[in-house]
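Regression test case RT-17, inverse folding.

Input:
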């Protein structure tokens, strides 16, 4: 039913009238003009280092799960900024924390990734979205023989 709605004339008309794609692209252009490269807060690194130490002490593994915003998903996860890549580098190289990107593991592999949101709108995931995210995390954190 959701798939049929997405292909319906009404959905396409509303999408056109609201200028979803145009508005989103303009937002990136406008923000991109005066954006300075943000530095990662040193407190963030300290917190991650502490979490890593606690997980090592407890004999457990620490995973960082990147959950993109809906605007990033609407752009097929291609608009990840340099901040995303800086965080990923710190996690993997400096702290040896395992990284799970829902962009790479779920949304980029999905033909209609917005089906994981109620009415394909900005906000929380729907039950299907949470279920698929749980499956990805389970798959990535459990080693199968």
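Golden output:
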């Amino acid at each position: 039913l959701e798939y049929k709605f997405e292909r319906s004339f009404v959905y396409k008309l509303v999408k056109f009238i609201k200028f979803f794609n145009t508005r989103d692209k303009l937002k990136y252009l406008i923000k991109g003009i005066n954006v300075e490269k943000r530095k990662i807060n040193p407190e963030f690194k300290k917190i991650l280092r502490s979490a890593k130490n606690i997980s090592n002490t407890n004999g457990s593994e620490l995973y960082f799960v990147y959950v993109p915003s809906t605007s990033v998903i609407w752009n097929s996860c291609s608009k990840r900024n340099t901040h995303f890549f800086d965080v990923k580098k710190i996690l993997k190289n400096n702290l040896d924390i395992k990284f799970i990107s829902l962009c790479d593991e779920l949304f980029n592999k999905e033909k209609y990734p917005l089906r994981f949101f109620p009415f394909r709108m900005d906000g929380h995931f729907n039950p299907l979205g949470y279920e698929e995210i749980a499956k990805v995390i389970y798959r990535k954190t459990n080693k199968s023989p």
